[in-house]
Please model this.
Amino acid sequence: MDFELSEEQQRFRDSVSGFARRFLQKGALERAHSDAYPHDVARQMAAEGLFGIAFPESAGGQGGTLMDAVIAIEAVAASCPRSADIIQAGNFGPVRVLAEHASEAQRERFLKPLLAGGALISVGMTEPEAGSAVTDLETTATPDGDGYRINGTKVFTTHGPYADFILAYVRFAKGIDGIGSVIVEKGAEGFSYGRPTRFLSGDEWAQLYFEDVYVDAEQVLLGPGGFKKQISGFNVERIGNAARSLALGRYAYDAARVYAKERTQFGRPICEFQGIQWKFAEMKMRLEAAGLLLYRAASRADGGVPSAEDTAIAKAYCNRVGFEAASEALQVMGGAGYSLDSLVEYCFRRTRGWMIAGGSVEILKNRIAEGVFERRFRQRP
Ligand SMILES: Cc1cc2nc3c(=O)[nH]c(=O)nc-3n(C[C@H](O)[C@H](O)[C@H](O)COP(=O)(O)OP(=O)(O)OC[C@H]3O[C@@H](n4cnc5c(N)ncnc54)[C@H](O)[C@@H]3O)c2cc1C
Model:
Protein backbone atom coordinates (compact mmCIF):
# COMPACT_ATOMS: atom_id res chain seq x y z
CA MET A 1 0.00 0.00 0.00
CA ASP A 2 1.37 3.40 -0.97
CA PHE A 3 0.30 6.39 1.12
CA GLU A 4 2.41 8.94 -0.81
CA LEU A 5 1.30 11.14 -3.69
CA SER A 6 2.93 10.15 -7.00
CA GLU A 7 5.55 12.51 -8.46
CA GLU A 8 3.00 13.73 -10.98
CA GLN A 9 0.47 14.43 -8.20
CA GLN A 10 3.13 16.27 -6.18
CA ARG A 11 4.01 18.42 -9.19
CA PHE A 12 0.32 19.22 -9.72
CA ARG A 13 -0.13 20.08 -6.02
CA ASP A 14 2.94 22.34 -6.07
CA SER A 15 1.77 24.14 -9.18
CA VAL A 16 -1.76 24.74 -7.74
CA SER A 17 -0.27 25.83 -4.39
CA GLY A 18 1.95 28.33 -6.24
CA PHE A 19 -1.05 29.69 -8.16
CA ALA A 20 -3.06 30.00 -4.93
CA ARG A 21 -0.24 31.76 -3.07
CA ARG A 22 0.33 34.21 -5.93
CA PHE A 23 -3.27 35.07 -6.74
CA LEU A 24 -5.54 34.04 -3.87
CA GLN A 25 -3.72 34.46 -0.56
CA LYS A 26 -4.07 38.21 -0.71
CA GLY A 27 -7.73 39.04 -0.25
CA ALA A 28 -8.59 35.68 1.39
CA LEU A 29 -10.21 37.36 4.42
CA GLU A 30 -12.30 39.77 2.31
CA ARG A 31 -13.42 36.89 0.09
CA ALA A 32 -14.52 34.89 3.13
CA HIS A 33 -16.76 37.74 4.24
CA SER A 34 -18.08 38.73 0.84
CA ASP A 35 -21.67 37.83 -0.15
CA ALA A 36 -20.91 37.79 -3.84
CA TYR A 37 -19.76 34.73 -5.75
CA PRO A 38 -16.15 35.50 -6.81
CA HIS A 39 -16.56 35.26 -10.58
CA ASP A 40 -13.10 36.79 -11.08
CA VAL A 41 -11.54 33.85 -9.21
CA ALA A 42 -13.70 31.38 -11.18
CA ARG A 43 -12.53 32.78 -14.52
CA GLN A 44 -8.90 32.77 -13.38
CA MET A 45 -9.15 29.17 -12.20
CA ALA A 46 -10.82 28.10 -15.44
CA ALA A 47 -8.00 29.73 -17.44
CA GLU A 48 -5.49 27.90 -15.23
CA GLY A 49 -7.09 24.53 -16.12
CA LEU A 50 -8.57 24.01 -12.64
CA PHE A 51 -12.14 23.44 -13.83
CA GLY A 52 -13.28 20.03 -15.08
CA ILE A 53 -10.07 18.48 -13.75
CA ALA A 54 -11.48 14.95 -13.70
CA PHE A 55 -13.76 15.32 -16.74
CA PRO A 56 -12.84 13.69 -20.05
CA GLU A 57 -11.30 16.01 -22.62
CA SER A 58 -14.27 15.24 -24.90
CA ALA A 59 -16.49 17.01 -22.32
CA GLY A 60 -14.17 20.02 -22.17
CA GLY A 61 -12.28 18.71 -19.13
CA GLN A 62 -8.65 18.12 -18.29
CA GLY A 63 -8.71 14.29 -18.34
CA GLY A 64 -7.35 14.00 -14.77
CA THR A 65 -8.58 11.95 -11.82
CA LEU A 66 -10.89 12.55 -8.89
CA MET A 67 -7.82 12.49 -6.65
CA ASP A 68 -6.35 15.39 -8.70
CA ALA A 69 -9.50 17.40 -8.02
CA VAL A 70 -9.16 16.66 -4.28
CA ILE A 71 -5.53 17.80 -4.41
CA ALA A 72 -6.65 21.06 -6.06
CA ILE A 73 -9.17 21.74 -3.26
CA GLU A 74 -6.50 21.17 -0.62
CA ALA A 75 -3.87 23.29 -2.37
CA VAL A 76 -6.25 26.21 -2.88
CA ALA A 77 -7.81 26.07 0.61
CA ALA A 78 -4.38 26.32 2.24
CA SER A 79 -4.12 29.88 0.86
CA CYS A 80 -7.79 30.91 0.57
CA PRO A 81 -10.45 28.76 2.27
CA ARG A 82 -13.36 30.41 0.43
CA SER A 83 -11.78 29.77 -2.98
CA ALA A 84 -11.96 26.03 -2.32
CA ASP A 85 -15.70 26.47 -2.97
CA ILE A 86 -14.87 27.66 -6.48
CA ILE A 87 -12.86 24.50 -7.16
CA GLN A 88 -15.91 22.61 -5.91
CA ALA A 89 -18.22 24.56 -8.23
CA GLY A 90 -16.03 23.86 -11.25
CA ASN A 91 -15.47 20.18 -10.56
CA PHE A 92 -17.75 18.37 -8.16
CA GLY A 93 -21.38 19.38 -7.98
CA PRO A 94 -23.98 19.80 -10.72
CA VAL A 95 -21.26 20.60 -13.23
CA ARG A 96 -20.03 17.05 -12.85
CA VAL A 97 -23.55 15.63 -13.35
CA LEU A 98 -23.73 17.69 -16.56
CA ALA A 99 -20.33 16.48 -17.78
CA GLU A 100 -21.49 12.91 -17.25
CA HIS A 101 -25.01 13.01 -18.66
CA ALA A 102 -25.38 16.04 -20.96
CA SER A 103 -25.92 15.63 -24.71
CA GLU A 104 -23.65 17.48 -27.15
CA ALA A 105 -26.19 20.30 -27.44
CA GLN A 106 -26.53 20.55 -23.64
CA ARG A 107 -22.77 20.63 -23.21
CA GLU A 108 -22.56 23.54 -25.63
CA ARG A 109 -25.43 25.44 -24.06
CA PHE A 110 -24.79 24.84 -20.33
CA LEU A 111 -21.47 23.12 -19.63
CA LYS A 112 -19.26 25.30 -21.80
CA PRO A 113 -20.00 28.61 -20.03
CA LEU A 114 -19.72 26.86 -16.65
CA LEU A 115 -16.29 25.42 -17.44
CA ALA A 116 -15.14 28.83 -18.66
CA GLY A 117 -15.97 30.24 -15.22
CA GLY A 118 -18.45 32.73 -16.69
CA ALA A 119 -21.63 31.13 -15.33
CA LEU A 120 -22.80 29.54 -12.11
CA ILE A 121 -25.10 26.56 -11.54
CA SER A 122 -26.83 25.56 -8.28
CA VAL A 123 -28.70 22.42 -7.27
CA GLY A 124 -32.37 22.71 -6.38
CA MET A 125 -33.02 19.41 -4.67
CA THR A 126 -34.30 20.13 -1.16
CA GLU A 127 -37.93 21.16 -0.65
CA PRO A 128 -39.83 22.32 2.43
CA GLU A 129 -41.16 18.78 3.04
CA ALA A 130 -38.30 16.84 1.44
CA GLY A 131 -34.94 17.27 3.18
CA SER A 132 -33.14 14.06 4.10
CA ALA A 133 -36.10 12.20 2.60
CA VAL A 134 -35.30 13.72 -0.77
CA THR A 135 -37.36 11.20 -2.75
CA ASP A 136 -40.46 12.82 -1.21
CA LEU A 137 -39.89 15.82 -3.48
CA GLU A 138 -43.05 17.22 -5.03
CA THR A 139 -41.89 19.61 -7.75
CA THR A 140 -43.58 18.37 -10.92
CA ALA A 141 -42.66 18.30 -14.60
CA THR A 142 -45.79 18.05 -16.75
CA PRO A 143 -45.54 17.51 -20.53
CA ASP A 144 -46.37 20.55 -22.67
CA GLY A 145 -45.67 20.24 -26.38
CA ASP A 146 -42.00 19.32 -26.86
CA GLY A 147 -41.11 20.43 -23.34
CA TYR A 148 -42.43 20.49 -19.78
CA ARG A 149 -44.04 22.86 -17.28
CA ILE A 150 -42.33 22.94 -13.87
CA ASN A 151 -44.27 23.66 -10.67
CA GLY A 152 -42.91 23.56 -7.13
CA THR A 153 -40.73 25.15 -4.44
CA LYS A 154 -37.09 24.60 -3.49
CA VAL A 155 -35.32 25.64 -0.28
CA PHE A 156 -31.69 26.01 0.85
CA THR A 157 -30.32 26.29 -2.72
CA THR A 158 -26.83 27.70 -2.17
CA HIS A 159 -26.20 30.73 -4.45
CA GLY A 160 -29.79 30.26 -5.71
CA PRO A 161 -30.58 34.00 -5.83
CA TYR A 162 -27.87 34.70 -8.42
CA ALA A 163 -27.15 31.37 -10.14
CA ASP A 164 -27.46 31.42 -13.94
CA PHE A 165 -28.83 27.87 -14.00
CA ILE A 166 -30.64 25.71 -11.45
CA LEU A 167 -30.32 21.96 -11.79
CA ALA A 168 -33.76 21.20 -10.37
CA TYR A 169 -34.76 17.74 -9.26
CA VAL A 170 -38.31 17.18 -10.47
CA ARG A 171 -40.97 14.52 -10.54
CA PHE A 172 -42.16 13.31 -13.97
CA ALA A 173 -44.27 10.57 -12.39
CA LYS A 174 -44.91 8.88 -9.02
CA GLY A 175 -42.22 6.91 -7.15
CA ILE A 176 -38.42 7.04 -7.19
CA ASP A 177 -38.36 6.06 -10.85
CA GLY A 178 -40.47 9.11 -11.65
CA ILE A 179 -37.71 11.50 -10.53
CA GLY A 180 -35.29 13.21 -12.93
CA SER A 181 -33.82 16.67 -13.42
CA VAL A 182 -34.18 19.77 -15.57
CA ILE A 183 -32.08 22.90 -15.98
CA VAL A 184 -34.02 26.08 -15.27
CA GLU A 185 -32.49 29.31 -16.51
CA LYS A 186 -32.37 32.53 -14.52
CA GLY A 187 -35.02 34.95 -15.74
CA ALA A 188 -37.37 32.24 -17.04
CA GLU A 189 -41.02 33.29 -16.96
CA GLY A 190 -42.68 32.00 -13.76
CA PHE A 191 -39.36 31.51 -11.92
CA SER A 192 -39.17 33.77 -8.85
CA TYR A 193 -37.30 34.03 -5.54
CA GLY A 194 -38.25 34.52 -1.91
CA ARG A 195 -36.45 36.96 0.38
CA PRO A 196 -32.71 36.11 0.28
CA THR A 197 -31.28 34.93 3.57
CA ARG A 198 -27.96 33.45 4.71
CA PHE A 199 -26.51 30.31 6.16
CA LEU A 200 -24.17 30.61 9.16
CA SER A 201 -21.32 30.36 6.63
CA GLY A 202 -22.47 33.61 5.01
CA ASP A 203 -23.59 31.93 1.75
CA GLU A 204 -26.86 33.29 0.43
CA TRP A 205 -29.89 31.20 -0.37
CA ALA A 206 -33.50 32.00 -1.19
CA GLN A 207 -36.65 30.00 -1.62
CA LEU A 208 -37.12 29.25 -5.34
CA TYR A 209 -40.64 29.24 -6.80
CA PHE A 210 -41.46 27.58 -10.10
CA GLU A 211 -44.91 28.49 -11.37
CA ASP A 212 -45.61 26.93 -14.76
CA VAL A 213 -42.00 27.51 -15.81
CA TYR A 214 -41.54 26.16 -19.34
CA VAL A 215 -38.41 24.11 -20.09
CA ASP A 216 -37.71 22.85 -23.59
CA ALA A 217 -36.63 19.28 -24.35
CA GLU A 218 -32.95 20.30 -24.28
CA GLN A 219 -33.34 21.48 -20.69
CA VAL A 220 -34.20 17.97 -19.51
CA LEU A 221 -30.93 16.52 -18.23
CA LEU A 222 -32.24 13.22 -16.91
CA GLY A 223 -35.78 12.04 -17.54
CA PRO A 224 -37.78 9.57 -15.46
CA GLY A 225 -35.45 6.99 -13.91
CA GLY A 226 -32.62 9.52 -13.69
CA PHE A 227 -32.60 9.74 -9.89
CA LYS A 228 -30.25 6.80 -9.30
CA LYS A 229 -27.76 8.15 -11.84
CA GLN A 230 -27.88 11.54 -10.16
CA ILE A 231 -27.34 10.07 -6.73
CA SER A 232 -24.30 8.11 -7.91
CA GLY A 233 -22.94 11.44 -9.19
CA PHE A 234 -23.75 12.81 -5.76
CA ASN A 235 -21.04 10.60 -4.27
CA VAL A 236 -18.58 12.70 -6.24
CA GLU A 237 -20.11 15.88 -4.82
CA ARG A 238 -19.70 14.39 -1.35
CA ILE A 239 -15.98 13.82 -1.94
CA GLY A 240 -15.58 17.53 -2.68
CA ASN A 241 -17.58 18.35 0.42
CA ALA A 242 -15.39 16.03 2.55
CA ALA A 243 -12.21 17.47 1.02
CA ARG A 244 -13.24 21.02 1.91
CA SER A 245 -14.14 20.03 5.49
CA LEU A 246 -10.72 18.49 5.92
CA ALA A 247 -8.88 21.32 4.16
CA LEU A 248 -10.53 24.00 6.30
CA GLY A 249 -9.87 21.96 9.45
CA ARG A 250 -6.21 21.83 8.45
CA TYR A 251 -6.15 25.54 7.70
CA ALA A 252 -7.44 26.31 11.21
CA TYR A 253 -5.03 23.81 12.77
CA ASP A 254 -2.04 25.42 11.00
CA ALA A 255 -3.10 28.93 12.00
CA ALA A 256 -3.48 27.85 15.64
CA ARG A 257 -0.12 26.02 15.58
CA VAL A 258 1.68 29.20 14.50
CA TYR A 259 -0.27 31.18 17.10
CA ALA A 260 0.52 28.74 19.92
CA LYS A 261 4.25 29.09 19.26
CA GLU A 262 4.09 32.89 19.37
CA ARG A 263 1.44 33.72 21.95
CA THR A 264 2.91 34.12 25.43
CA GLN A 265 0.91 33.93 28.70
CA PHE A 266 2.21 33.47 32.24
CA GLY A 267 5.65 34.20 30.80
CA ARG A 268 5.69 31.19 28.45
CA PRO A 269 4.58 30.43 24.87
CA ILE A 270 1.20 28.71 25.24
CA CYS A 271 2.48 25.67 23.27
CA GLU A 272 4.46 24.82 26.43
CA PHE A 273 1.22 24.05 28.32
CA GLN A 274 0.33 20.37 28.15
CA GLY A 275 -3.38 21.21 27.91
CA ILE A 276 -2.63 22.97 24.62
CA GLN A 277 -0.19 20.29 23.36
CA TRP A 278 -2.79 17.54 23.78
CA LYS A 279 -5.30 19.50 21.72
CA PHE A 280 -2.80 19.52 18.87
CA ALA A 281 -1.98 15.84 19.29
CA GLU A 282 -5.71 15.01 19.05
CA MET A 283 -6.20 17.29 16.05
CA LYS A 284 -3.22 15.85 14.24
CA MET A 285 -4.27 12.21 14.78
CA ARG A 286 -7.78 12.87 13.54
CA LEU A 287 -6.84 15.08 10.58
CA GLU A 288 -4.36 12.47 9.35
CA ALA A 289 -6.85 9.62 9.76
CA ALA A 290 -9.51 11.64 7.92
CA GLY A 291 -7.03 12.31 5.10
CA LEU A 292 -6.42 8.59 4.63
CA LEU A 293 -10.15 7.84 4.44
CA LEU A 294 -10.67 10.63 1.93
CA TYR A 295 -7.76 9.54 -0.29
CA ARG A 296 -8.94 5.94 -0.14
CA ALA A 297 -12.41 6.92 -1.34
CA ALA A 298 -11.08 9.20 -4.09
CA SER A 299 -8.32 6.94 -5.35
CA ARG A 300 -10.52 3.82 -5.46
CA ALA A 301 -13.15 5.66 -7.53
CA ASP A 302 -14.14 3.24 -10.24
CA GLY A 303 -14.71 4.99 -13.57
CA GLY A 304 -14.40 8.26 -11.66
CA VAL A 305 -17.25 7.43 -9.26
CA PRO A 306 -16.35 6.45 -5.68
CA SER A 307 -18.31 3.75 -3.86
CA ALA A 308 -21.24 4.84 -1.70
CA GLU A 309 -19.75 3.19 1.39
CA ASP A 310 -16.23 4.64 0.99
CA THR A 311 -17.81 8.03 0.40
CA ALA A 312 -20.14 7.84 3.40
CA ILE A 313 -17.26 6.90 5.71
CA ALA A 314 -14.96 9.58 4.31
CA LYS A 315 -17.56 12.35 4.34
CA ALA A 316 -18.98 11.64 7.80
CA TYR A 317 -15.49 11.47 9.31
CA CYS A 318 -14.00 14.45 7.45
CA ASN A 319 -17.07 16.58 8.26
CA ARG A 320 -16.73 15.85 11.96
CA VAL A 321 -12.96 16.11 12.14
CA GLY A 322 -12.84 19.30 10.05
CA PHE A 323 -15.38 20.98 12.32
CA GLU A 324 -13.76 19.73 15.54
CA ALA A 325 -10.32 20.91 14.39
CA ALA A 326 -11.70 24.34 13.50
CA SER A 327 -13.44 24.54 16.87
CA GLU A 328 -10.35 23.48 18.85
CA ALA A 329 -8.09 25.79 16.83
CA LEU A 330 -10.45 28.66 17.61
CA GLN A 331 -10.28 27.77 21.32
CA VAL A 332 -6.45 27.75 21.22
CA MET A 333 -6.49 31.22 19.71
CA GLY A 334 -8.89 32.59 22.32
CA GLY A 335 -10.46 35.96 21.49
CA ALA A 336 -8.20 36.30 18.45
CA GLY A 337 -9.65 33.10 16.98
CA TYR A 338 -13.25 34.15 17.63
CA SER A 339 -12.75 37.51 15.98
CA LEU A 340 -13.92 38.33 12.45
CA ASP A 341 -10.42 39.29 11.41
CA SER A 342 -9.33 35.66 11.80
CA LEU A 343 -10.08 33.15 9.05
CA VAL A 344 -10.32 30.52 11.78
CA GLU A 345 -13.79 31.70 12.81
CA TYR A 346 -14.79 31.43 9.12
CA CYS A 347 -13.48 27.84 9.00
CA PHE A 348 -15.51 27.10 12.15
CA ARG A 349 -18.72 28.47 10.64
CA ARG A 350 -18.12 26.95 7.22
CA THR A 351 -17.26 23.42 8.36
CA ARG A 352 -20.39 23.27 10.53
CA GLY A 353 -22.69 23.40 7.51
CA TRP A 354 -21.11 20.40 5.81
CA MET A 355 -22.29 18.19 8.66
CA ILE A 356 -25.81 18.88 7.31
CA ALA A 357 -25.37 19.62 3.59
CA GLY A 358 -24.92 16.94 0.94
CA GLY A 359 -26.16 14.12 3.18
CA SER A 360 -26.12 14.81 6.91
CA VAL A 361 -23.73 12.93 9.18
CA GLU A 362 -26.73 10.94 10.50
CA ILE A 363 -27.89 9.90 7.03
CA LEU A 364 -24.31 8.84 6.17
CA LYS A 365 -24.12 6.77 9.35
CA ASN A 366 -27.34 5.03 8.26
CA ARG A 367 -25.57 4.15 5.00
CA ILE A 368 -22.49 2.90 6.87
CA ALA A 369 -24.67 0.73 9.13
CA GLU A 370 -26.22 -0.88 6.05
CA GLY A 371 -22.71 -1.99 5.07
CA VAL A 372 -22.06 -3.28 8.59
CA PHE A 373 -25.20 -5.45 8.63
CA GLU A 374 -25.24 -6.16 4.87
CA ARG A 375 -28.89 -5.19 4.56
CA ARG A 376 -31.01 -2.13 3.96
CA PHE A 377 -32.93 -0.47 6.78
CA ARG A 378 -36.15 1.20 5.72
CA GLN A 379 -36.39 4.64 7.34
CA ARG A 380 -40.11 4.99 6.72
CA PRO A 381 -42.72 3.79 9.22
C1 LIG B 1 -24.77 24.82 4.15
C2 LIG B 1 -25.87 24.14 3.43
C3 LIG B 1 -25.92 24.19 2.05
C4 LIG B 1 -26.96 23.55 1.36
N1 LIG B 1 -27.01 23.68 -0.01
C5 LIG B 1 -28.04 23.09 -0.68
C6 LIG B 1 -28.15 23.24 -2.10
O1 LIG B 1 -27.34 23.89 -2.74
N2 LIG B 1 -29.18 22.64 -2.72
C7 LIG B 1 -30.13 21.90 -2.06
O2 LIG B 1 -31.01 21.35 -2.70
N3 LIG B 1 -30.06 21.77 -0.70
C8 LIG B 1 -29.04 22.33 0.00
N4 LIG B 1 -28.96 22.22 1.37
C9 LIG B 1 -30.00 21.49 2.05
C10 LIG B 1 -29.55 20.14 2.58
O3 LIG B 1 -29.42 19.22 1.54
C11 LIG B 1 -30.56 19.72 3.64
O4 LIG B 1 -30.46 20.64 4.71
C12 LIG B 1 -30.32 18.30 4.13
O5 LIG B 1 -30.65 17.38 3.12
C13 LIG B 1 -31.13 17.99 5.38
O6 LIG B 1 -32.46 18.30 5.19
P1 LIG B 1 -33.24 19.21 6.27
O7 LIG B 1 -32.43 20.42 6.53
O8 LIG B 1 -34.63 19.38 5.78
O9 LIG B 1 -33.21 18.36 7.60
P2 LIG B 1 -34.16 17.13 7.95
O10 LIG B 1 -34.15 16.13 6.85
O11 LIG B 1 -35.47 17.65 8.40
O12 LIG B 1 -33.40 16.49 9.17
C14 LIG B 1 -33.38 17.09 10.48
C15 LIG B 1 -32.43 16.28 11.36
O13 LIG B 1 -32.89 14.92 11.45
C16 LIG B 1 -31.87 14.03 11.02
N5 LIG B 1 -32.50 12.89 10.31
C17 LIG B 1 -33.39 12.95 9.28
N6 LIG B 1 -33.71 11.71 8.88
C18 LIG B 1 -32.99 10.86 9.66
C19 LIG B 1 -32.87 9.44 9.71
N7 LIG B 1 -33.55 8.65 8.88
N8 LIG B 1 -32.01 8.92 10.63
C20 LIG B 1 -31.31 9.70 11.48
N9 LIG B 1 -31.39 11.05 11.48
C21 LIG B 1 -32.22 11.62 10.57
C22 LIG B 1 -31.00 14.86 10.08
O14 LIG B 1 -29.68 14.31 9.97
C23 LIG B 1 -31.02 16.21 10.78
O15 LIG B 1 -30.08 16.22 11.81
C24 LIG B 1 -27.94 22.84 2.07
C25 LIG B 1 -27.88 22.78 3.46
C26 LIG B 1 -26.86 23.43 4.14
C27 LIG B 1 -26.82 23.35 5.63
